[in-house]
Backbone:
């Protein structure tokens, strides 16, 4: 059995997948475990090896999952006769098996540095990626700017999801630092996977607008409450480096104290970010088209007119683009692009 455990650990090490080594360091009869017994607990809660009976195994798995979240080793004492006073550095849990007994175990997590998923291409996103490794976070940046198919009809949320590359069992913290470019899409994309934290770099006033946009897109109230906005501790930070530091300080606090519940990553109902509730009514229907926009377009070729609502958008910056008949069109939001995709001729005939 020990050979099988070592081989499994080798394979997990090779793939850098998180797991926890468990070793029995003390036992008191009639515990069925013996000193030196070992087990391995994977990120999905599977226990391989032997460290005691059924009652002990369940407690070990639960404690191992906590170790994977905090990244810290742990001493676990399972006993039917707990000491009157707690023991520093030891987690004490009651032995519930009828046979009673005592077993003490050492839990050592491996490959547990959490992933910091950074969405955006802003200076704050760059600063986070630079500082994260110093605080034992593995940075992974994604953005619409990095998408290899930015001219396709795929939704921004889907484009971001394709870049995630998060392995099963990894603990993930996410920060959206898109700075107003595609905030709601980024939040929905990040929320498609299990998270320990989801922060949005924004102002309190801007967050209210984004929150309303997310709610309109079908985001649950639980997701809206889970998002930390503005992200970071209030330390009076100024500039990208200090703001990134304030966010990392908050992440360390959440990680070490295990504060708050995580997000389960279940799909958000109707989560096409920016999609308008009533598709029959063009968004921004009251927007006035600026007659001078054509002249501006000639002077600045990146400025284009949304063929659905008439708003002027920057083609080089908007994430909402669609190529049709060899021409790339830009849109102010996902709703306009979706309506255009359904019937391009309808909108181009009025252009």
Residues:
């Amino acid at each position: 059995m020990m050979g099988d455990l070592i081989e499994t650990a080798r394979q997990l090490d090779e793939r850098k997948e998180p797991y926890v080594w468990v070793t029995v360091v003390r036992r008191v009869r009639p515990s069925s475990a013996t000193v030196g017994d070992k087990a391995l607990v994977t990120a999905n809660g599977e226990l391989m090896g032997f460290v005691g009976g059924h009652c002990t195994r369940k407690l070990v798995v639960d404690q191992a999952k906590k170790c994977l979240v905090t990244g810290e080793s742990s001493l676990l004492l399972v006993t039917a006769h707990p000491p009157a006073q707690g023991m520093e550095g030891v987690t004490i849990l009651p032995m519930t098996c009828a046979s009673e007994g005592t077993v003490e175990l050492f839990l050592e997590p491996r490959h547990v540095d959490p992933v910091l998923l950074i969405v955006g291409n802003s200076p704050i996103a760059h600063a986070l990626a630079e500082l994260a490794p110093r605080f034992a976070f593995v940075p992974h940046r994604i953005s619409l700017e990095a998408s290899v198919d930015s001219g396709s009809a795929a939704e921004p949320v889907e484009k971001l999801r394709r870049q995630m590359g998060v392995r099963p069992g990894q603990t993930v913290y996410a920060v959206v630092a898109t700075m107003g470019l595609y905030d709601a899409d980024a939040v929905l994309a990040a929320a498609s996977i299990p998270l320990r934290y989801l922060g949005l770099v924004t102002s309190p006033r801007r967050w209210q607008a984004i929150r309303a946009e997310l709610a309109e897109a079908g985001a649950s109230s639980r997701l809206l409450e889970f998002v930390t906005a503005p992200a970071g501790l209030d330390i009076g930070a100024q500039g990208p480096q200090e703001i990134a530091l304030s966010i990392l300080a908050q992440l360390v606090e959440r990680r070490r104290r295990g504060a708050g519940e995580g997000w389960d990553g279940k799909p958000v109902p109707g989560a096409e970010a920016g999609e308008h509730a009533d598709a029959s009514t063009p968004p921004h229907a009251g927007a006035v088209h600026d007659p001078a926009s054509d002249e501006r377009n000639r002077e600045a070729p990146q400025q284009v007119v949304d063929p659905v609502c008439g708003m002027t958008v920057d083609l080089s910056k908007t994430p909402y683009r669609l190529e049709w008949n060899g021409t790339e069109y830009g849109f102010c939001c996902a709703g306009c692009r979706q309506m255009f995709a359904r019937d391009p001729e309808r909108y181009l005939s009025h252009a």
